[in-house]
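QA checklist item 7 of 12: single-chain prediction sanity check.
[x] sequence parsed
[x] length recorded as 155
[x] structure emitted
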Amino acid sequence: YQMVVLHQEPEEDQELFVFPYRQEHLALLVPMQHPLAACKELRLRDLRNQNLLIHTQIGFWGKLSREKLPTCHFLYMDEWDAYQQLSEAGSFPTFTTEAFADSWSRSDKKVVSIVDDEVNVTYYFACSANDRHRFQPLIRQLQEKFSVTKDYDQF
């Protein structure tokens, strides 16, 4: 690979150029009539025994959800369009992040932050230190568009 994006910081290596470029924070999109909608924020333990809608193709988030929430009852969806329709019209809470912030403006749903450290992820750009100059335009764009210091308390 010429460059990669990682969700865990790699070990220090003189042959790699690495920088944190973006954070992603897991939250729960909850119907307003759901009991969890009364919460200002959640911890993973608050989700015990909940029925949750989840898309199967969400990368490491899917594995993390299964590991950290073994008592949850997941309704898995494979097709993105069907998942979106069910998450919009259904009564099941579902996970979201600020990457999907443009779809949060529904008055019948509420986004509730999940505050556990393990569901707040920093992404790292990595390439060979020798190739850093080749990727400088991309690196500059990532640093301008995304910031690991950006405050995502907007949930």
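[x] summary fact logged: The mean pLDDT is 85.
[ ] second reviewer sign-off
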